[in-house]
Amino acid sequence: MTITLPDLPYDKAALEPHISSRTMDFHHGKHHNAYVTNLNKLIAETDLAGKTLEDIIKATVNDADKTGIFNNAAQVWNHTFYWQSMKPNGGGVPSGDIAEKIIADFGSHDNFISEFKTAGLTQFGSGWAWLVLKNNKLEIMKTTNADTPIAHGIMPLLTVDVWEHAYYLDYQNGRGNYLDSFFNNLINWDFVNSNLA
Ligand code: MN
User: What's the CA-to-centroid distance between 107 and ligand 1, angstroms?
Assistant: First the structure.
């Protein structure tokens, strides 16, 4: 069994004008694909070959000799979760259980957005911003490079990629504008509600 690159859950042009098909060609077709290819090379003929992505991540997270495997495995997982975190005509204020939980745990939707945006903007260099469920409470989290909540037993509900490759073609250095598009037009709240359930 090898790790495979999952298809995007929508057409590569479906998130335009917020994320271009050109960004998708590079981000899914080149970056995400390269993590898959590298991971399969690194685990070939080791005791990790044949294991699930989640098991590979958990088995390598604190192993300094396996940093390359962890980084590629976590990046494969994170990107698959990121594609699912978005949909055409998404974003805005959610409905369902997540809406009530955001009010309960952040005070207001605006406070939630403000805290999430700050996490994305202040992640120095490459990384990810997350909405996670920890001790049954919503929290905002940021991770560096490939690091991922699932490596630390924390349940992610939503993520945004803040590596420059996620937004540079469409927004150049405007990470804040990219995050605003994510909040206003892209978040797949159905996915977040299903993760919460
Ligand atoms: Mn990325």
Answer: 31
